[in-house]
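Lecture 7 notes: from sequence to structure.

We start with a single chain of 98 residues. Read the sequence below before looking at the structure.
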Amino acid sequence: LNERKYPFKLPGTFSVDISESVEFDLPITDISIPKIAELNYKGFKLSTSFEKNEKILKFTTHLSADQIHYKQEDFLPLKNKLSQLEQLEKLYIIGRWK
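Now the structure, written as tokens:
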């Protein structure tokens, strides 16, 4: 929707935690991981972190929504802010192995 004429309500609150681990055959020497800005906007929160050891990368992502009622005027700013999350799929990890 490009606009709303009435306040809106989400079906409920939610929280999702995603943990991913990538193991490499060779030790990692240099790695470039994109910085992902945290989101904390009108009840929506996104945070990410990563850990690295010699052959393993571990990523953790937390996404939550703790608000269900929104005003009509919140719709477009919220839609625009959340649509920025689509850009995350275009990020790459670049590394060098021994």
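Helices lie at 75-83. Keep this in mind for problem set 3.
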